[in-house]
Amino acid sequence: MSEHQALSCRELVELVTEYLEGALPAPERDRFESHIATCPDCTNYLAQMRTTIRLSGVLTEESLSPTARAQLLVAFRTWKVR
């Protein structure tokens, strides 16, 4: 794939963690930012990921209700990568 080829939404989702960590090489970061500039759905996804990261930093196991904790454990144990 050429580094100048437009990034697809699927590719962006796969790269979002590296982007947020500042680990994308400059050409990939440029492609990522070009896509974000023109795709409102991916812009929203990036904002959701930033919010998730920010909020998850304030969660503690003790702050979760027993029901929420159980639901999260089930979700993570049955997580399947597609």
Describe this structure in words.
- The chain is mainly α and 82 residues long.
- The chain has one domain: Arc Repressor Mutant, subunit A.
- The chain contains 4 helices and no strands.
- The chain has helices spanning 9-20, 26-38, 40-56, 66-77.
- The two termini are 22 Å apart.
- The model has no long low-confidence stretch (mean pLDDT 86).
Task: Supply database-style keywords.
about 0% strand, Arc Repressor Mutant, subunit A, elongated, mainly alpha, single chain
Judged by helices, strands and strand pairing, the structural class is mainly alpha
Tally of discrete structural domains? 1
β-strand amount: under 5%
Largest sheet: none
CATH architectural category: Orthogonal Bundle
Top CATH class: Mainly Alpha
Cα(first) to Cα(last) distance is 22 Å
SSE string, helices as H and strands as E: HHHH
Percent helix, as a range, is 55-70%
Radius of gyration: 16 Å
Mean pLDDT: 86
Q: CATH topology, which one?
A: Arc Repressor Mutant, subunit A
The tally of strands reads 0
Task: Give the topology, please.
Elements (H helix, E strand, L loop, with lengths): L8 H12 L5 H13 L1 H17 L9 H12 L5
Summarize the structure.
With 82 residues, the chain is mainly alpha-helical. 66% of the residues lie in helices and 0% in strands.
